[in-house]
Amino acid sequence: MVVTKKSLLVQQLRRTQLIDFLSKGKRLDGRKLLERRPLSIELSPIEKASGSARVKLGNTEVIAGVKVELGTPFPDTPDKGILIVNTEVLPLSTPFAEPGPPSEESIEVARVVDRGIRESEMVDMSKLGLVKGKKVQAIFADVTVLNHDGNLLDAVSYAVTSALASAKIRRYKVTGEEITATEEFVPLEVQTLPASVTIARIEDVLIVDPDMEEEAMMDARITFTTDDRGNICAGQKGSAKPLSFDQIKLAASIAREQGDAIRDLIRGVIA
Amino acid sequence: MVVTKKSLLVQQLRRTQLIDFLSKGKRLDGRKLLERRPLSIELSPIEKASGSARVKLGNTEVIAGVKVELGTPFPDTPDKGILIVNTEVLPLSTPFAEPGPPSEESIEVARVVDRGIRESEMVDMSKLGLVKGKKVQAIFADVTVLNHDGNLLDAVSYAVTSALASAKIRRYKVTGEEITATEEFVPLEVQTLPASVTIARIEDVLIVDPDMEEEAMMDARITFTTDDRGNICAGQKGSAKPLSFDQIKLAASIAREQGDAIRDLIRGVIA
Amino acid sequence: MVVTKKSLLVQQLRRTQLIDFLSKGKRLDGRKLLERRPLSIELSPIEKASGSARVKLGNTEVIAGVKVELGTPFPDTPDKGILIVNTEVLPLSTPFAEPGPPSEESIEVARVVDRGIRESEMVDMSKLGLVKGKKVQAIFADVTVLNHDGNLLDAVSYAVTSALASAKIRRYKVTGEEITATEEFVPLEVQTLPASVTIARIEDVLIVDPDMEEEAMMDARITFTTDDRGNICAGQKGSAKPLSFDQIKLAASIAREQGDAIRDLIRGVIA
Amino acid sequence: MHEMATLIDDKGLRIDGRKVDELRPLKIEAGLIKNADGSAYIEMGKNKIMAAVYGPKEVHPKHLTLSERALLRCRYHMSAFSTDTRKNPAPSRREHEISKVLRDALLPAVLVEDYPRTAIDVYVEILQSDGGSRCAGLTAASVALADAGIGMRDLVVGCAAGKLNDQVVLDLNDTEDKEGSADLPIGLMPTLKEVTLLQLDGMLNTEEFQRAFDLAVEGCLKVYQVQRAALIKKYFGAEEVRQEVKQ
Amino acid sequence: MHEMATLIDDKGLRIDGRKVDELRPLKIEAGLIKNADGSAYIEMGKNKIMAAVYGPKEVHPKHLTLSERALLRCRYHMSAFSTDTRKNPAPSRREHEISKVLRDALLPAVLVEDYPRTAIDVYVEILQSDGGSRCAGLTAASVALADAGIGMRDLVVGCAAGKLNDQVVLDLNDTEDKEGSADLPIGLMPTLKEVTLLQLDGMLNTEEFQRAFDLAVEGCLKVYQVQRAALIKKYFGAEEVRQEVKQ
Amino acid sequence: MHEMATLIDDKGLRIDGRKVDELRPLKIEAGLIKNADGSAYIEMGKNKIMAAVYGPKEVHPKHLTLSERALLRCRYHMSAFSTDTRKNPAPSRREHEISKVLRDALLPAVLVEDYPRTAIDVYVEILQSDGGSRCAGLTAASVALADAGIGMRDLVVGCAAGKLNDQVVLDLNDTEDKEGSADLPIGLMPTLKEVTLLQLDGMLNTEEFQRAFDLAVEGCLKVYQVQRAALIKKYFGAEEVRQEVKQ
Questions:
Q1: Would you call C47 and E77 a contact, using CB atoms and an 8 Å cutoff?
Q2: pLDDT digit string, tens, across residues C142-173
Q3: Residue D60, min C-alpha distance to chain A (Å)
């Protein structure tokens, strides 16, 4: 949970100011209500990874790196590969993190992004099986947070999607149960580009892509991840206050629309 | 360790009252000195477990569930199965527990109950071997504590004994080193019914089955587990004060006698 | 980190006294500047270990025990054995240790001693391979600290070197991929005897083998481990202040010289 | 996810015989954990869940104390025997996430500002798990909070809708959750008509999302009837329940 | 447990040549850990155990402070090289249980009420383990407490009896413990004749339990002589020990 | 360690084409982490490392507060994707040791006595690792401290020398570190000419040690030029850097 160091009085004044701004359709940093912060994606900053991406969403900055290893399949999907998304909110990235086991926020972000990737069927896991029930390729998408200025969830989503979509993985030859690593690397096939969009509610106003200060003042938060065809494949409500039925439906349609814009941007980068 | 929230003065007054009661052969809740609280056992509350039992001993309430998995035998007993008893005193069950690794009390309870099951040879572990040195059946008896009102050890003992005695386990066909799971489920054979009886000493008086309040005031505690033939198969002294030779011998004979009554009750339930 | 309980004033007075002593070429316990505390080594105190040594360096006392197990080689050295040095600074040994995971000091000591053993090639790891890529002998050198009176690093170094140099390990017969344990035990061959020497700087004075009180007052610390031929095979600077170029070179030559004396002593014991 | 052809038969019935908009058998009972300040037990399909509340009470460790409101903590935990294959008792990442989601789902309903400088601990123990255990756990937790006498704006009810063979259905069981193609659990404050929990796991187009959401809300309102009855039964006895249900 | 035929031979001797009621060789020495406030080293058979006491001292963390008595803590720990195959240095469940049992076994003897608001930490380190390490550790811990000058009602001595081939025997070694059919370790305050530790692991009928218990008490009393001698030697020198032993 | 014949070719060039006394390509940039009080990014060969400083600030937990100076803490951590095969994100013993060594290497330079009762936290994150990551991390950490405006006696620079095929060489890359026979990383306060870090891993005779040490010091002084330029660029803009480098 994010706690600001400011005094209560200052917080209240700032909130009053924010609400006043929002009522006029503006935000404290000059954005419009449904405007995302500038998004930039640098591909392959980590040469040692199979795929990697450094994403800046405003001042929020993360790096995703993809590693592929040989692993054992889960018993209920013996012919499918494994994909694990992991996020570390380093104490490097914010005055509020502490060293130690992954925080609640790290776990939530990783799990929601993981669901978006998995449910959208971005990666065809059945192509990662090698020897049924024995050996599969296991994809680890690890994310290091460098600067946390709010809306980590979307930044991590874009970084993982970009890193996977640009990854090159080793080809294996399988003869019977014998697996031989080749020196050939092929692009990881992706079937769609999932993109998450996070919307915050402050009083009765919905805004897109809250920054850290807005997150500290928001009443509720909702994230939807959509795929190329506009399907919603993951959703997550957070924060301490409720949402109305209409707010949820509106958020879903905003997410679908802005998801397309984000996909276009990612597609442009990985092309 | 159990700590009550009451003030020191109130505790001392209560202790004076308790000792006065005990000197008249009575207890604060109306029981006689050697009287257990009402014991009720509900079999198979957890359909997904191979065997399960919900035990109420007065207001102490626990659920034991038995799961059977394939495992690797210990190197010194290559042809024997594995049995592991595990207890979790959940923070749900008492104002005094904390989330985190198993408490000292959880570990002691699980280990003493485990010894009773193991040393009584309740389950013939050699029948759980499948492929010598490679594959055996591993029985996990896990216990969740729902309400901790004292004498957890006996409640857990009765729950684990009942869950094991009513368990049905999958049959395996073994041909050479190949193991095939069948869809046939057979009762787990049990050779005896171990039952633990816990006796507390308060001043010079021995009482059976102390409740939480009595545990907070007891001087010493001793538990004996007996089998069908009246053998003692596990023992454990606890708490901060000593016992005399005579008290130990008396406790052992009480445990043997009450063990029979408990076995009769369990037998009635599983019949 | 070591913290003394004394008041600040007392500490300052003691430091003034120490510096006065050092300026006269003496130390508080009567030693000369480059004089080590008496070193005694008892071989094989632990019969159950393949090799063991109990080392007293003044009042610092440790026991090293060597165990040999079968293990899997590291992927990058498929035909070599494994050697792991581990040190536990027990709360038994000092008023300042706490139960829990290994302290920073434990880890540093174990890793520096490990480097000295490994880089000196004391043990020819290629002789510990059994089946390439599958099975090797794994040597664990575990150290229990009994009394911590400063300069743990050297005491642990001498104990591990002595325990390894006097170890007897089981012979295995290897036919193809089949490994058979024999009942024959042969001395572990060692190619050299690494010995570490720790030098502390207090103001401008270098002293050898600081005790606990000197460690609490030292400005900087440097350790060099040397082998039979006077090569330096491990080095580690520690503590909160710097060293000059000359101090480092002087320390290296002291370490080489005293290393020979220590090797002679160890050789005498294991002969 | 692939779908088995048989999740809904040609009569429109599901593998457990339910219609697409039918809840599983549901039972709620308040006040079973004697030590707790409030508690509730729920069975929803094969889910068997115990919830308990301790508090308002002193905050430990103290530095977590909030000066203006109660600290609401929530722990969702699965017993080792609750799943088909034994679950390691150490909390998984999934349990950590659901703990957070449940806390966020209860917070809007609890009058935390009435209990400054205190802690309210909510424990949800899954004794046997089936599909929808977070929803059933949420429903039970909110009854346990009410049973503890803690001031609330509204109860919170949980229920999920999902998608099987391209049909939107209510309240997925375990097999349906695994074989189906979407699960949308929601948490609702039934009187205020506000949503406090929403997760989505699976693929829904715009229209399906709309229908699933509406169906989940309907499900919540049905569960709410049983939830109220449990509290009335606890506090006013069985007679009133019957009257209540008739009305 | 199955039993090997050879645990007791036809002359009534055990695998290490002892009679059924004979202790293993025993050696106790006080005061070896310089940093500790009190310490003791014991060898009993192949057991080699160091015990150390720190305290009375300030309690950390502070919230554990007891206002009316000392907080007595105990940690039983095995060195990685102490067992036949290497032991993982992280404390096992067994070590946790024995730590608790030893604390409970020492508490009746220590005058904790004389040291309110302090902590007394007792560490028992198994350098080499044989059967009966908890008993030997208890004996050593009580010497270490006395060596630390901490007020005690009595010393505490540990010794076990057990069953081999249907015979009750004293002080089982490692092989006997594993192959035998019962082990009954007890802790005794030898002057007060009160029992502070009792565990049983194995199968004994009424009469065997009685005999094993009596035999373990006898064993404790023998160990007590060596325990006293160690303290006398430390505090009065070797001469007195000889006198003492003669008497 | 065995050595490959090809680590230095017959022209005296190394596997990446460098001469024996040549540094890898080096780039340092200050102030990239917006949230931090100071930060620096370094690329040295394939090393890509981010360092950030938070502080001086209140100490948590409070009992660690030092009354006469700042508490300097350091955490060296490797991202899971930073190594050839994925690294488990939990800190290894190696990471713990390097964290300690880096703290000890920075302490002599930081005016900790100017910030009593505060904490200064230094984080070094290895995004991609190559040989010499601790040296590059040290260089970056010291820039981050300066960028945070924390008072320092001097900067600290890290650079290693080592031995390949019996030749002493500067600044080993990953392959050279693994295949070579010694690595001597040092940390230097370049103006004060004092050593704050020294480790040695490998085998060097007296003369080799001397040469390697001198070479590492030379390397440090070269790195120092780039380090200074990064700070000047941050605080005085690009023009000054060019002037500075020309002089």
A1: no
A2: 999 999 999 999 999 999 999 999 999 999 99
A3: 17
Instruction: Please determine, for residue B140, whether its predicted confidence score (pLDDT) is greater than 50.
Output: yes
Tokens 């545990």 found at: B215
Q: How far apart are CA F121 and CA F73, in angstroms?
A: 5
Other beta carbons less than 10 A from residue F229's beta carbon: 17
> What is the number of H-type helices and E-type strands within chain E?
5, 9
B46: distance to nearest CA of chain D, Å?
Answer: 6
The predicted complex's ipTM stands at 0.92
Chain E contacts to C (CB-CB under 8 A): 32-36, 46, 48, 50, 52, 54, 57, 75, 77, 79-86, 89, 121, 123, 125, 127-129
Is the CB of A12 inside 8 Å of chain D's CB atoms? no
Using a CB-CB distance cutoff of 8 angstroms, which residues of chain F are in contact with residue C238?
A: 100-101, 104
Per-residue pLDDT reduced to its tens digit, F1-47: 444 558 899 899 999 999 999 999 999 999 999 999 999 999 999 99
The beta-carbon neighbor of D123 closest among B67, B91, B148 is B91
Question: Of how many residues is chain D composed?
Answer: 247
The pLDDT value given to residue F165: 86
Which pLDDT band, with edges at 50, 70 and 90, does B75 fall under?
A: confident
Residue with tokens 């941007």: A265
Cα–Cα distance, A243 to B166 (Å, whole number): 49
Specify whether the CB–CB gap between B217 and B157 falls below 8 A.
no
Q: How many pairs of residues across A and F have Cβ atoms under 8 Å apart?
A: 85
Q: Which of F71, F73, F104 to mutate to test the interface with C (most CBs of C within 10 A)?
A: F104
Section A227-239 average pLDDT: 95
CB contact under 8 Å between C244 and F205, yes or no, is no
* AA letter at E62: K
Q: Is the dihedral of CA F236, F238, F240, F246 positive or negative?
A: positive
Q: Set out the domains of chain E in order of their start, with CATH numbers.
A: 14-236 (3.30.230.70)
pLDDT at position C45 over 90: yes
Beta-carbon separation of D203 and A256 below 8 A:
no
Q: Residue A64: list chain F partners with CB under 8 A.
A: 81
Average pLDDT, chain D: 93
The half-sphere exposure of C60 on its side-chain side, counting CA atoms within 13 A, is: 25
Provide φ and ψ at B207, rounded to 5°. -130, 155
Instruction: Report pLDDT for B176.
Output: 87
Please tell me the predicted confidence (pLDDT) of residue B13: 87
Instruction: Tell me the chain D residues in contact with residue B93 when contact means C-beta distances shorter than 8 Å.
Output: 33, 35, 52
**E40, β-bridge pairs:** E30, E51
**pLDDT at E124 exceeding the cut of 90:** yes
Q: What is the pLDDT of residues D210-229, one digit of tens each?
A: 999 999 999 999 999 999 99
Pairing type for strands C178-187 and C82-89 reads unpaired
Chain-chain contact of E210 with B249 (C-beta, under 8 angstroms): yes
What is the pTM assigned to this prediction?
Answer: 0.93
Residue B7 pLDDT:
66
**How many Cβ pairs closer than 8 A exist between chain B and D?**
86
Touching chains A and F? (3+ Cβ pairs < 8 A): yes
Q: Which helix (H) or strand (E) holds C109?
A: helix C104-119
In this complex, is the C-beta atom of A126 within 8 Å of any C-beta atom belonging to chain D?
no
Q: Give me the mean pLDDT over the A261-271 stretch.
A: 95
3-class state of residue D20 by DSSP: coil
Helix (H, G, I), strand (E, B) or coil at B244: coil
Which two three-digit tokens encode residue E56? 């009375």
Reported as type and span, the H/E element at residue C214 is: helix C212-217
Domains and CATH numbers, chain A: 29-270 (3.30.230.70)
Contact between chains at C46 and E36 (C-beta distance less than 8 A):
no
Distances in Å between the Cα of B157 and the Cα atoms of B56, B62, B66, B87, C160 are 12, 10, 13, 11, 47
Task: Kindly give the parts of chain F with pLDDT less than 70.
Answer: 1-5, 238-247
